[in-house]
Structure of CPA2 family monovalent cation:H+ antiporter-2:
Amino acid sequence: MHDPRLLLDVLSLLLAAVVIVPVFQRLRVPAVLGYLVAGALLGPHTPGPVVDVELPQLLSEFGVVFLLFAIGLELPLSRLRAMRRYIFGLGLMQVLLTSAAIGGAALALGESAAAALVIGGMLAFSSTATVLKLLVERGETVARFGRISVAVLIFQDLAVVPLLALLPLLAGGDTSIPEALALAAAKAVGAVGVIMLLGRFVVRPAYQFVASAKSPEVFTAANLFVVLAVGWLTAEAGMSMALGAFLAGMLLADTAFRHQVEADIEPFRGLLLGLFFMTVGMTLDLPAMVARADDILALTAALLAGKSILLFALCRLSGLGLATALRVGLLLSQGGEFAFVLVGKATGLAVLDAETGLLLSSSVALSMAVTPLIGLLAHRLAQAIEARLGAEAFGIETNDLKGHVLIAGYGRVGRAIARLLMDHNIPFVALDLDPQRVARARADGLPVYYGDSSQVGVLRAAGIERARAAVITVNRPEMAERALDSIRRTARSVTIVARAHDLERGAALTRAGATAVVPETIEASLQMASLVLRSAGVEAEAVDRSLKAVRDRGYADLAERPGDESQDSAA
């Protein structure tokens, strides 16, 4: 290492994150705030070590890129269509009206038109990471208010893209806001068209080729290349890399490779995004924040109250019940992590001054910190309303996959299981690592995806935590055991049925946590015996009882004894 100072800076960043973030998570405080505090402690405004912000700032920009890519992966066109009423209805109205209300207030307080537009836009967004974490922890992502909250968050994520593209145009100074908006929209439409064409005729065939190599590291390299290459193309076109990354994610959202891509990109996204928030924390002037504590508290209270009231009213106008509207309004009242992104870019482009940026960042951070308490308040208020006025419909939305069967391996056995599940109208999701097999199934409209069922990230993306059962059909013992271990660690109570070649391997899978194991060779011999007995005139009911007795004893009567193998060979 030529520069020991650089190594010391890296060690300081890692140590601060490793020590502080877990403490915040243990206290049930969003990890984003832990990264902000860790960065503030290493910044120039606090006593102790000071880290040079240049290198982490360079790397942290890729955190935003990977975040937008991951959001794009979650937005296939089919999902947008299924939730279009709340995404493009309630979500659109929330962003427009909240932006207009906050922007108008900023304009009345003396901000320029460009600054007011940016302030209104950034404070209209809520924290996707914080809200989703709360919903997942409480198992409320499938509740009606949870699905509506997610729909609004989806539109907010979509709205970030044009706002990021708009910032450089607003910084020009001589461009009017309507012209800037029109130019940003035109560039976005053009970029979407070009990238969609590239995706259909270049990216998807390329992924088929890369997946056929069956090399995990090559597949990961392809993911990184696509994200960065598309981001570079949009940057060269005068837009942000984040926009390109978002479009790249949407390209792959409807493909069979989506779950594996999501799992591969997750470590990069988490690490670089954490680094981004640490660099934001380094810029926070804590003494100045203390000096303006009254302003920060007032702005935070106004933000939480104003957004809650507005969204509550919109939910009621959309026909939602009182308890549902209250929970959605309170749950989405905070500022979002994209505010830090926008503040950094806007101050860098001189659209906002540093003092205003500090005030906004501080208020957003505080609003995120109190979100768990607000979520608890919303829960209790909703329960009180329902107890008095009657329960509302918090049922599962039809587009939310729940109670399905996960099939690990879509070979001949996996296909047979899938066919029987379809005959009984039981939903399923299948994972396989053969791209040709997956492509054929996808062409038939089946929910079969390219993905490694031994990776926890892939399993979660396929909804293992909401599944009623998992079936492991892969014919390689080591892969089956890894898949079983990952499924059991991710969903402890799910029923797992595993395929094994023989009794010895079946015993290993049982010890590893399988609920039931089917030894393939033994079952084949039982089926042959059944046919022989039936042909000999034994009644079908008696044959079934015999087979059941053998299975109930765990196939113990058929276990191999010393010398059995040689006797078979002699025969």
